[in-house]
């Protein structure tokens, strides 16, 4: 079992972010530190979640033990450039072709009269 401060208890990391991090195997502060800010962010992104730059800054703030808004503009820029470079290396999304148009067929009254209902008693419609 992993020891250390749970991501649930880290500064800047809310319940949704903590859940995302847990789902990608980052359960403690030590796990986050070993991965690093950008790699932790990219693990969440590659897992199919839709993290924003706020998560990137929140992870950095958690590792620096400061509020994410206290991260310098220079460091934020470095993180964004690194994250954008990592995102550029991701394979393009696989798009599925759009499904064929859905058509709805409605039965006329005469057709529905001939069809038994689940609520009809046996022999009621003859």
TrEMBL record:
<dbReference type="Pfam" id="PF04994">
    <property type="entry name" value="TfoX_C"/>
</dbReference>
<feature type="domain" description="TfoX C-terminal">
    <location>
        <begin position="9"/>
        <end position="81"/>
    </location>
</feature>
<protein>
    <submittedName>
        <fullName>TfoX/Sxy family protein</fullName>
    </submittedName>
</protein>
<feature type="region of interest" description="Disordered">
    <location>
        <begin position="97"/>
        <end position="126"/>
    </location>
</feature>
<dbReference type="InterPro" id="IPR007077">
    <property type="entry name" value="TfoX_C"/>
</dbReference>
<dbReference type="InterPro" id="IPR047525">
    <property type="entry name" value="TfoX-like"/>
</dbReference>
